[in-house]
Structures are given as C-alpha cells and as structure tokens.
Amino acid sequence: MTIRKSSFQCSRSFEYSLVVPETIGAARPVLFLHGMGESGLNLLEEHEEQVRTSGRVWILPNGPYSWERRRLGRLGYSWYHFLGDQQVLRASMEEALLYLDQLLEAVASEVALGPKFSVLGFSQGGYLGSLFAASNPERVSGFGCIGGRLKHEFFPKQDEYPPMLQLHGENDFSVSTELAGKGVAAAKLLGVEAEMQTFPEVGHEVSSSMIETFLAWEGELL
Predict the structure, then answer these.
(1) Is the CB of residue 28 less than 8 Å from the CB of residue 114?
(2) Beta strands at 30-33 and 58-61: parallel, antiparallel or unpaired
(3) Spelled out in words, what is the top-level CATH class assigned to the domain 2-219?
(4) pTM exceeds 0.90, yes or no
(5) Dihedral sign, Cα of residue 99, residue 155, residue 203, residue 141
(6) What is the tens place of the pLDDT at every residue in 167-192?
(7) For residue 35, how far is the Cα from the chain centroid?
(8) C-alpha to C-alpha distances, 69 to 35, 53, 83, nearest whole angstrom
(9) Which backbone phi and psi does 109 adopt, to 5 degrees?
(10) Residue 83 pLDDT level (bands cut at 50, 70, 90)
C-alpha cells in the first residue's frame, strides 16, 4: 500500500492524501470528505487500518478553507461557508463542487479512477458529498452520509441519482436522527434510492462499523 500526500493548484495550493493499494482490484475508489475543522489526514490517521486493508484507492482531500480548532491545537479545514443564508450557502457549496472537480482531475493524473467511484462524507462533508453525488450520477456509484444530512433542497431535478445511504449515530446531538431521517424521506420523494441505518451508542463521529457498513453496501451496487 502506498500513502501519498499531494497538492494541486486551484488559485492556491491544496492538499490531499491518496492511499493506493499494491494491487488495485475491481472495488471502486472512495472519495472521503472530512467534517468541519478536520482534514483528510485526520481521517486517514483515525481509520488507517480499515483504509489500508480495504483493497481500494482512497482520496482524502482537505477542504478549501482553513479552520483553526484552538481547543485541539490544530489547523483544520472546512468545505463551505454557512452564515444562515441559504442562497449564500448554495453558492459556497457550488464553488466547493468545482474545487472537487479540479481535485479529481489532479488525482486522475496519479492513479486511474475508473469510470465510477463512491463518495463518503462526514458531517459537513456529508452535506457537501450528497450534493456532489446528486450532481454527478454518471460518475458516482453510491454515496454514504455519516453524521450529516442529505441536502435535498439543492439537488438538481433529474431522472437519475446515485443510491444514497445515511449512516447515523443514535447519540448524535449535532445532527439529530430525526433531522437526518427527514432528509432521507425528502430525497426519496425526488426519486433518490435512499435508505438509513442507525448505530446505537454512537455519537457525532465516524465509527468503524459505519465504514464497514458503507463498504459492504457500496460493494453490492452495480
């Protein structure tokens, strides 16, 4: 397995971690989006064993905006600006989609991604990842949202969406189970093949069981 830290130019330099197994099999790559104030490297360090043994290519980028977490004494990143105004939020999220497009172009110059890849996002990365997946049905095989919500209000109106799986901790007090469930129900009304699984004794976090569940679910998709 090879772990690389890379960067690309998009008005300024941004970094991402890229995990490449020694043998790349048929399993699709995973684009893994962190939560607010975190980084791709944080995710990799916290879940390296599962990532390393999955046999998949993993792309773990940093968000485009710096976000200092003084309590933890580290610099993290965010994906978009949210100040309460939905129009401003939409514009910021759409800018982040362009950022991800450029990032994936850079990754494709390092490793073959194949015709499709899956997306997994935590918290803020879950909100953004749902919009990215909905906007790219021809590229995304499936999307998993951990501790966030399917941002169905911003989904483009179209005939086809990638399947989506909401993975939610029953003790998540940042994004309630009820709110996450409403997002799944609303996405279904748009025609999304969406479902939800909850995890007892899990809070606002990425658990190993969530990653395991997502990979098994995504592996069954055509």
Answers:
(1) yes
(2) parallel
(3) alpha beta
(4) yes
(5) negative
(6) 999 999 999 999 999 999 999 999 99
(7) 9
(8) 12, 30, 18
(9) -80, -15
(10) confident
How far is it, in rounded angstroms, from Cα 110 to Cα 108? 5
Label residue 52 exposed, middle or buried (CB < 10 Å: 0-12, 13-18, 19+): middle
Look at residue 63 and give its three-state secondary structure. coil
Contact 138, 50 (CB under 8 A): no
Contact 178, 157 (CB under 8 A): no
For residues 163 and 67, the answer to whether their CB atoms sit within 8 Å is no
Write the burial class of residue 120 (CB in 10 Å: 0-12 exposed, 13-18 middle, 19+ buried). Answer: buried
Mean pLDDT across the stretch 18-30?
Answer: 87
Cα(42)–Cα(35) distance, integer angstroms: 10
